[in-house]
Amino acid sequence: MKALILAAGYGTRLRPYTRQVPKALFTIGDEPILDILIAQLYAAGCSAVMVNTHHLAERIAYRVSSRRYPIPVQTRYEPEILGTGGAMANALDFLGEEPFLVINADVLTDIDLAAVYGYHCNHAHPVTMVVHDLPRFNQVVVGPDETVREILPAPPPSEESGGRRLMAFTGIQVVDPAVCRAIPRGVFSSSIDRYRDLLAGGGTIGAWIARGHRWTDIGTPESYRRAVFDKLAPEAFQRAFGRPPAGPITRHCMAGDGSDRAWYRLTDGRRSLVMVDHGIDSGPVSEAFSFIRIARHLARRSVPVPALYAADTLAGQVFVQDLGDRHLQQAVTGGAADRATADVYRTLIDLTIRMNREGARGFDPRWCFQGGRYDRTLILARECRYFTKAFCRAYLGLPVSFEDLRPEFERLADGALRGAVTGFMHRDLQSRNIMVHGERFYFIDFQAGRLGPLQYDLASLLIDPYVDLPEGLQAQLLAYAARRAGGDDTAGFVACYHHCALARNLQILGAFAFLSREKGKSFFEGYIPAALRSLRRRLAAFPASAFPRLRTLVEKIRKQGGTS
Predict the structure, then answer these.
(1) How confident is the model at residue 561 (pLDDT cuts 50, 70, 90)?
(2) What is the pLDDT of residues 414-436, one digit of tens each?
(3) At a CB cut-off of 8 Å and minimum separation 6, what does 559 contact?
(4) Which CATH number, 3.40.30.10, 3.40.50.10950, 3.90.550.10, 3.30.565.10, labels domain 2-217?
């Protein structure tokens, strides 16, 4: 048996994602559907496969040429799309004289392809169409003898079926070469039109009726996302707990964060996992890509992050350990100045130092979707300019110019890099991104991680407005961190910290303003006063001459009622 995989189409229903990725290379668990189909064909006894191509043909050709499949696989480029009938006619020289199997490249199924082929070889019909009952697509009229009687232009309403047995075509068929010899080569031709002509001329078509099977057409974003979930969710439960789900998997929406991702708790009635849904993203380095690569890397380096059980980068779905709902903010609220809180933060500082050191070993900056390093350009654009644009101008309505403050911002950026203990930097290491599960702490939301100063993560932890640690405790904890990680230059370590803390404070205000004003997430607005008080304290750590214009701006905001 030889087979033809139809992969030439534009995938218009999947736009805009198919502008970068051809439909045949959409993934299920990071494995292209094309590879899944080839593996199924090989398991069914197929001896060779042809893949027709047109849209993004070079991407498919590269995939095929770079893989070592267990059977020969070729691609055939169509300068102009030939349709299903034209594609079969165009591949006859490869397909040979025996019946061949044809399958659409957007079909994900567990239908027994060997049984389909065997069924075809044991009847006299020149074509076998694999059909099933799927009402929204039912337009193939099947007789009691399991032959196709008619192929309707569209599925009729159920009340108009006229007692006919209507089924849907699965996109899987077995065809005798003689059926295709009458199709002109090099011109567009629909196999369905050819089959209608065959039936009109007295020919016959067999119907292989699939039952109790899994079948998904991934031709739309919704069906693709559903197919990924249906495949990966049970696998994630199996890997997490060593057994299949105990019952149907249900999902419940969880409270989100400052991003546009969606969070779901999945349960089988007994146990639970969490799915983070980033949405489909066909770019070369997406947020999901960074999350997955960094999660696996940090786990290998024994950094406490949730276990990752299954993922698909293109679909943006990631299935991870359920760490519950208790984060650090909840754990320390109400006791922010007591000894137990200080002990908790010293433990977290040790874990942060370990993450910085161990996370840097083998870390690849190409994993990062927002840039691989915390550098001067990033500080100026995403900390300082963000503050002036999102907070000062958009939120407060103040006519603040980034350029007027540029000399001070450049001084700040240089100071945040001077004396840095460089390693893996989480970039958003605040209390709501640290989960408390059992007796352990876990870091989450590390997808914006990169190489950068340890001092920045320490600042994110200590000046966090959600907890608002007392200044005295912050100073004690900074001294502890400097002793643990500052080496012989604790003064340089502390100086870098203060610059990083100021840059982080500017970023916090920009983010809180943007999320509350532009994203409608009013939760963040409640923490702006604490962040402004922190900004005044951050500036107080420097001589008055260090950032005079920024000091003046902050005092102006305070006097206008921007903070208490």
Answers:
(1) low
(2) 999 999 999 999 999 999 999 99
(3) none
(4) 3.90.550.10
Domain parsing of the chain, residue ranges: 2-217, 221-321, 328-559
- Partnered with residue 443 across adjacent β-strands are 434
For the domain made up of 328-559, give the CATH fold: Aminoglycoside 3'-phosphotransferase; Chain: A, domain 2 (3.90.1200)
- Each residue of 247-276: pLDDT tens digit? 999 999 987 666 678 999 999 999 999 999
Per CATH, which fold does 221-321 belong to?
A: Phosphorylase Kinase; domain 1 (3.30.200)
**Rounded distance between C-alpha atoms, residue 234 and residue 250, angstroms:** 11
Cα torsion at 189, 24, 287, 432 (round to 10°)? 110
3-class SS letters over 119-161: HHHCCCCCEEEEEECCHHHCCEEECCCCEEEEECCCCCCHHHC
> Does the model's pTM come out above 0.70?
yes
Q: Are 32 and 51 in contact (CB under 8 A)?
A: no
Residues with Cβ within 8 Å of residue 502, at least 6 apart in sequence: 412, 416, 535, 538, 539, 541, 542, 547
| Pairing mode, strands 262-267 and 250-253 | antiparallel
